[in-house]
Amino acid sequence: MNVEEEVQRLQEEIKRLGKVQPDGSYKVTFGVLFNDDRCANIFEALVGTLRAAKKRKLVSYDGELLLQGVHDNVEIILKPTPPSSSAAATTDSVAKS
């Protein structure tokens, strides 16, 4: 599995395990993700996948490196998905007409 696929799977798992917020984001703690059996089977390096997702500005959390036990209560926030580019292109076309 490549990094892009892993980041996409991470987003799915955060949605499965997290709680949806009023702004459309999802919130889950590192401990919940780390200790989930399904996540353990999917992600060989969960911390690395989280860092890749953070670098792509898809998730946010405090700190750089998360460690089991020490950072179990750190909240990971999956940012709301922006509208699809095709919907934005349609809106732009209508606005320009």
TrEMBL record:
Q: Which InterPro entries match?
A: Costars, Costars_dom, Costars_sf
GO BP, sorted A to Z: regulation of actin filament-based process
Q: Where is the Costars domain?
A: 1-79
Describe the family membership recorded for this protein in Swiss-Prot or TrEMBL: Belongs to the costars family.
Q: What is this protein called?
A: Costars domain-containing protein
From which lineage does this chain's organism come?
Eukaryota, Viridiplantae, Streptophyta, Embryophyta, Tracheophyta
